[in-house]
Amino acid sequence: MSRIIAGAAGGSPLTSVPGNMTRPTTDRVKEALFSRLDAFNVIAGARVLDLYAGSGSLGVESGSRGADSVDLVEFDAKASAVCQKNADLVNTVAHRKVVFVHRSKVESFLERTADAVLWDLVFLDPPYPLDEPALAAVLAKLVPHLGEGAVVVVERSSRSPEPEWPDGVERFAEKKYGETRLWFAEPGVAAGD
């Protein structure tokens, strides 16, 4: 059973998405990831976006650790309902609405979000069947929504190739944890700048 590791709701169990339709981030990977993000000092007060949220575990962990607001984007109805349950847990502990759930396709959500909306921390944990060109297209749609000093974390199978980073985003680190690989990127200089 997955749980919220630290912060206001630390130790609370998370509701999981039934069946095998999602691939939850293990607590071991989540602990290592958030240790690194704490070192980057990007969580407290951040505006967080969790794309392909699944159960929302990365987003709600951010909310528990002091993010100012968290947007969970998940298209599947069952997974979106689980996101809402997990969001309610953090929102109750925070005594305010910190985590917001959007039942939407990732591409549509990014297309209809105003350009003025900027995120400080973004998680992308797309389903493995999502091919590399589709992931690259999502990353390109994300670029105008990255705040200064933002951190983008892409989680994929350790057998997946490195994402194709669009102009405006540069990888600065990667880490492998068993069958999982995390890539860390930040806003970079766009071509022509």
UniProtKB/TrEMBL annotation:
<protein>
    <submittedName>
        <fullName>16S rRNA (Guanine(966)-N(2))-methyltransferase RsmD</fullName>
    </submittedName>
</protein>
<dbReference type="InterPro" id="IPR029063">
    <property type="entry name" value="SAM-dependent_MTases_sf"/>
</dbReference>
<keyword id="KW-0489">Methyltransferase</keyword>
<keyword id="KW-0808">Transferase</keyword>
<dbReference type="Pfam" id="PF03602">
    <property type="entry name" value="Cons_hypoth95"/>
</dbReference>
<dbReference type="InterPro" id="IPR004398">
    <property type="entry name" value="RNA_MeTrfase_RsmD"/>
</dbReference>
